[in-house]
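INTERNAL AUDIT FORM
Audit reference: QA-55
Scope: verify that the stored structure record matches its stored sequence.
Auditor: D.O.
Record contents follow.
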Amino acid sequence: MKVLLYFENQNLIAQSGIGRAMRLQLAALGPVADVTVTTDPKCVDYDVLHINTYGLRSMQMVKKAHKMGKKVIYHAHSTYEDFRNSFFGSNLLAPFYKKYLVSLYKQGNALITPTPYSKSLLENYGLTQPIYPVSNGIDLAKYGYKEEQVQAYKEYFNIQPDQKVVMSVGLFFERKGIFDFVELAKRHPEITFIWFGHTNLAIVPGKVRHVIEHHPANLIFPGYITGDIIKGAFAAADLFLYPSYEETEGIVVLEALASKQKLLVRDIPVYDGWLVDQENCYKAESLDDFDKQMQAILAGNRPDLTEAGYQVAKERDLHQIGRVLDDVYRATLADKRLPLNDNGTVDINLSDQTV
């Protein structure tokens, strides 16, 4: 079976969640023996088009695939809900964006989306084709404590032995909870806060641009950083605090779990069923709650849940995700609908069966 993975404008999306999803899909499918993957849009001898982006060329790729009688799987990374509170004017455009997304998603023979939560959103849009919650996955081998990476992180930020560091990762979007992160930094000048990620300030609302340009001295915006420095931060920071209001999964959350990092997230529906407060992570409901939980974790007054969190990441290792994608492709080719297990996801044990 040959699969065409299509990502429009790869250079533009490289730093986004969809850009990371592209790299994860390629890595997940690499070891699958009976799947050949191409990213060449000129390829015509593929069996399944797995499309991940939403531009005009993506639409043309879908139309071309249908004309050739190919099966199309649309990967629903984006929703109306996570488009709001992002770019300048996004709330005004959101209703039109939703209609556009639905028109695209309807063209898929099946849909893949990262979580049961995002599946429920798509079903509420009136989409009726098979919708499969499949995690973006995580390459466990790339995470964990490596002394050289930790040292690179500490040297880059000049981290001292007694210095407490709270980190987060994301675009400069209100939806990501950046205002709460900045406010926590203002409240706690004794703590270093680092927000990894970057967005062109010309395309974000003025209130977001203002907090980026006038942040407290103990808050660092280092931009988009890859490699040893950010992996060292994931492994050695004192807390990963993710105040996002809306996600379809949150790849950076999986990266924190894979790094055995302490995790504090906002209590939002996307985490229901896989992140459990006080079992494998901590959750907060408001700014004051984040403040209270953060201080308790940093003071060592909360149990260490990192090993339980690591098990969550382990269940989403790319080796397993590749098997699930294989199942979804084969079911779609056969015009069949895969059953979902009790937690609403595809059962990886199906890969041992004939679909």
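Auditor finding: record pair retrieved intact. DSSP finds 14 helices and twelve strands in the chain.
Action required: none
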